[in-house]
Fold this protein.
Amino acid sequence: MIAIGLEGSANKLGIGIIEHNTETGVVKILANIRHTHVTPPGTGFLPRDTAVHHREFIIPVIKEALETSNVKIKDIDVICYTKGPGMGAPLVSVAIVARTLALLWNKPIVGVNHCIGHIEMGREITGANNPVVLYVSGGNTQVIAYSEHRYRIFGETLDIAVGNCLDRFARILNLPNDPSPGYNIEQYAKKGEKFIELPYAVKGMDVSFSGILSNIETIANEQLSNSQYTPEDLCYSLQETVFAMLVEITERAMAHIGSKEVLIVGGVGCNLRLQEMMAQMVEQRDGKVFATDERFCIDNGIMIAHAGLLAYRTGFVTPLEKSTCTQRFRTDEVHVAWRDT
Amino acid sequence: MSLGHSLTLTIPFPSSRLANIAERALNVDKELKSDQVKRIITTDDDKLIVTFDCTSVKMLRVSVNSLFDLIIMITKTMDAFDGLE
């Protein structure tokens, strides 16, 4: 069975085409094309401009995906799109194309939860069986474990996402958004020498990042001018602090459910320092860390195609009249019919 | 009863099939401010017909512009992918 996935919940526009062999269970990635809306240094991406970007590039990106995959339209079984969570205008811009394609080609359509897409793609690529999932990106920060046909949220951010905290600090330092602000913070952090103590905000199973961001913003404004600390020192300190918080709540979730596997997904998940810190913790528990590279960590269409096809194979379709988008769509709202209890 | 500011768009499509597809794709999303904007999307053979009825000129402009963005996206998709093998 073959599915095409359309993703555009944030500044990445992604189209993926995937094939599941329903007899052998082998999954084959036929195309995974992405185009990113990159804004000038010091600025973030806004819903309206991001929607304009997606509308401009979606046709050529779909064409490229179809050419790369070499599939015929008649061989595509289902069209999958991101239903949410994400920014409204970009989501709708992509969903309208998904609906039009479904009607033109006479195919069923499946609306996919973006977070579920990340989790299922991570499981498929890494082979992690029943991991504690740390989902960290620009819009989401959650620690998740599976039970009884649902991905249950064990802990999450109480305010902004960890990626949002890093992105906004990159803006304060005027770091470029190309290829991504988080990548540039990671490179700066490698050269950091002095550690500055920042607030450490773990509250039970939850975390909070907004106070840390305001604190480091104040330090940046006061200390960078008198050269007490370098931007590299600040990036290093910020990363060490927020990643330590994430590792702590992940460890507690592992203890709760007795799992020895950790899967890191989402855009921040391709940060090698986070993967390294997580590995140190997990090794002490005789466990294993699973992570993917930027092709699958950062938002992409293939994960939407994959999660959509898993649902479709259990008989799930979204009626066209109900193929709406929703900015808020929690991970634990989805009934995971394709996994055992 | 009219809300005071209305507009009717009649947009021709190459066929009634394509006009119908546009109507179905557009009708999924409801207007967010239903108390200020009433929007009805129908077809007449190969024409897409949209009527807007709004409480202010501003709401009418915003609503018409955002619908145009979506219609343009639909026609682009049709141009690129209809009848593709």
In short: The first strand of chain B starts at residue 5 and ends at 12. Chain B has two helices and three strands. The mean pLDDT of chain B is 95. The CA atoms of residues 31 and 56 of chain B lie 15 Å apart.
